[in-house]
Amino acid sequence: MAEQKETLWGQMLLAVGRGAGEIRLSDAAVAWLYDRYYPWLDQKSENGDTPLEVWGERGQKFLGRFTAIGQQIAASQPAGDAGPDAAAQAAVVVEDDSDCPYCPKTLIPG
């Protein structure tokens, strides 16, 4: 299961990058995304299962949300490197816009 988790994390990060387009994510932004979403893969949802357990049926929807995070980063950062603040702000927008029992439970400081 650990290998699958690593693979899915890679897919998630690629989706964010695809959404961000030409905007480079700083190492700190990637670290912020990792801290937020890597543990989320094992987090029980309101439905009692984890994103990792339902990835086969919901993975494309999840990846669409990660692409949307990248798009939000790009929209807020017209050029240069995006830092952790841009990642956090994008996550807030996308998570707030998502009616999802799987969204992370921890609040984003700010």
| Rg calculated over all Cα atoms | 13 Å
The string of secondary-structure elements, in order, is: HEHHEH
Taking all residues together, what is the mean pLDDT?
91
Total individual domains:
1
Low-confidence stretches: none
Give the number of helices: 4
Quaternary class: single chain
Name the shape in a single word.
globular
How much beta, percentage-wise? Answer: under 5%
Number of strands: 2
What is the end-to-end distance?
33 Å
Portion in helices? 55-70%
Q: Strands across the major sheet, in which order?
A: 1-2
What does the main sheet amount to?
Answer: 2 strands, parallel
Structural class: mainly alpha
Kindly describe this structure.
It is a single chain. With 110 residues, this protein is mainly alpha-helical. It has four helices and two strands. Strands 1-2 form a two-stranded parallel ribbon. The protein is globular, with a radius of gyration of 13 Å.
List the SSEs and their pairings.
Elements: H1 2-20, E1 24-25, H2 27-37, H3 51-76, E2 81-82, H4 84-97
Parallel strand pairs: 1-2
Helix pairs in contact: 1-3, 2-4, 3-4
Task: Please describe the structure with a list of short key phrases separated by commas or semicolons.
110 residues; mainly alpha; two-stranded parallel ribbon; 4 helices; 2 strands; 64% helix; 4% strand
Question: What is this structure, in a nutshell?
Answer:
This protein is 64% helix and 4% strand. The chain has helices spanning 2-20, 27-37, 51-76, 84-97, and strands spanning 24-25, 81-82.
